[in-house]
Amino acid sequence: MRGKSSIDECLMAVRTYSHREKLLKLVHAKSFTVLLALIFVLGYLSIRRMDEVSTQGQELQLQHSARLSMLLNLRLALTKLDNEARLRQQTESRGELKPPFDMRLNTARDEINELLQQIERPPLSEDPSWSQFRRDLEAYADVTEDVRRYSLEA
């Protein structure tokens, strides 16, 4: 009987081992599935975050380009205004005949005033340095209206 009992014990051990093996395979399969789900979720969240960062980068680039374009246009208009004011001053200092209405100078000043209106809009109007820049540009445009002030202050 002892032999039969050891065979039963061996069979029981094999059954227990195979049951444990099945449980272990099941646990591994579930763990693998959870791990795949976790990788999928992390990948999805990473893609969303990358899209957000990309969008923010594009917005910042557009803002920078718009400011740069506006500054270049202001520079061009200021150069034109300064050249016209200098030409008017030279004409007057030589005693030459000058145009009666200073159309070119007035046109250049109008261009500056149009560009100054862009600085009045948010977000630029909220920045103190842009507000000071705008005041300085207005003051310069005012100085160019009078020949004597231009020669003294500009």
Main attributes?
single chain; 154 residues; 4 helices
Descriptive report:
With 154 residues, the protein is mostly helical. It has one domain. It is 86% helix and 0% strand. It has four helices and no strands. The radius of gyration is 40 Å and the shape is rod-shaped. The N and C termini lie far apart (121 Å).
The number of distinct structural domains comes to 1
Radius of gyration: 40 Å
Fraction in beta strands: under 5%
Number of helices: 4
Report the biggest beta sheet as strand number plus sense, adding barrel if it closes.
Answer: none
Q: In which range does the helix fraction lie? A: over 70%
Task: Provide a compact summary of the structure.
By secondary structure, the chain is mainly alpha-helical. The chain has helices at 2-94, 103-119, 128-143, 147-153. Helix 1 (2-94) runs antiparallel to helix 2 and helix 2 runs antiparallel to helix 3.
Record the SSE blueprint:
Elements: H1 2-94, H2 103-119, H3 128-143, H4 147-153
Helix pairs in contact: 1-2, 2-3
